[in-house]
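Notes from the 1:1 (GR / supervisor)

We went over the backlog. Supervisor wanted to see one worked example end to end before approving the batch request, so GR pasted a single chain during the call. The sequence is below; no edits were made to it. Supervisor asked that the structure be written out right there so they could see what the output format looks like.
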Amino acid sequence: MDKKIMIVDDAAFMRMMIKDTLLKNGYENIIEAADGEIAVQSYKTEKPDLTLMDITMPNKNGLEALKEIKEMDPSAKIVMCSAMGQESMVVEAIRSGAKDFIVKPFKAERVLKTVQGILG
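Structure output shown during the call:
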């Protein structure tokens, strides 16, 4: 599949888990970013079809990055990832344009269902 997916999380092992799930299911065009600042810069140059972004990160959190990316590209497809207990941030993310959210710890089926639902 030639859809480009960007995974944004400050935890390398979380990026690796999502990447492995996507690779096993035919998504090969994957880019990674370790924080919201890098994500915004990468979005400008890479123009991913979908971004999976953590909410809590250093330098620039996921909500700030989401808002910046949506300002640049109102059609950006972004799914937020959050731990339990961050409901208010999830609500703000959806209001700010996120397509969906996935709760950590991830279940591979949930990640795939979300990605396939958005990318078709």
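Supervisor's comment: The first strand starts at residue 4 and ends at 8.
Batch request approved.
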